[in-house]
Write a structure and sequence with these properties.
single chain, mainly alpha, Methane Monooxygenase Hydroxylase, Chain G, domain 1, 6 helices, 71% helix, repeat, E3 ubiquitin--protein ligase, LRR-bact_E3_ubiq_ligases, ubl conjugation pathway, host cytoplasm
């Protein structure tokens, strides 16, 4: 996804290059360094793509950086990981789930009292839905923060950064 975004941005800056050639240039030339599997092995018209060696170097660094930082956020929300933790450390995982529910209820009550009552919106369905979403987001963030510590403890060495950046 990140590589496609980079290629799209580069294609937008080039007047004469074909967008397809730009996309292919990034994918083809970074195939090995990014370990891409579904890319053709050769490209005939790289020279007309408008993509430079410095573009490729910058793209490689951006993709690797994004993957390193995005993976840990993504994995915490992954259902199969939750299943593993629930099986391996059920008491601790369930305690986090119960805390998430408690956090939601507490945040909802607090927002209800502070926002809805003070604004006179007690029976406003849209306002209640809005604070419900805010309370859910807050509880989910707290759950994921607690989950991060549990994941680091249980699976830490398996979740190290994918790419080593120089």
């Amino acid at each position: 996804e990140k590589l496609e975004q980079i290629a799209r941005e580069k294609a937008g800056t080039l007047a004469l290059a074909d967008d397809v050639e730009v996309y292919l240039a990034f994918q083809n030339k970074l195939k090995e360094s990014l370990e891409l599997t579904s890319v053709t092995s050769e490209m005939r018209f790289f020279d007309v793509s408008g993509v430079t060696v410095s573009d490729l170097q910058a793209a490689e660094l951006q993709v690797k950086t994004a993957e390193n930082s995005g993976f840990s956020k993504w994995i915490l929300q992954w259902g199969p990981l939750h299943s593993v933790l629930e099986r391996k450390v059920p008491e601790r995982f369930n305690a986090l789930r119960e805390k998430q529910i408690s956090d939601y209820e507490g945040t909802y009550r607090k927002l209800y009292d502070e926002v809805l009552k003070s604004s006179g919106l007690v029976d406003d369905t849209d306002a209640e839905r809005t604070i419900g979403v805010s309370a859910m987001d807050s509880a989910k963030k707290e759950f994921l923060d607690g989950l991060r510590a549990l994941v680091d403890e249980v699976l830490g060495s398996y979740l190290t950064a994918r790419w080593r950046l120089n």
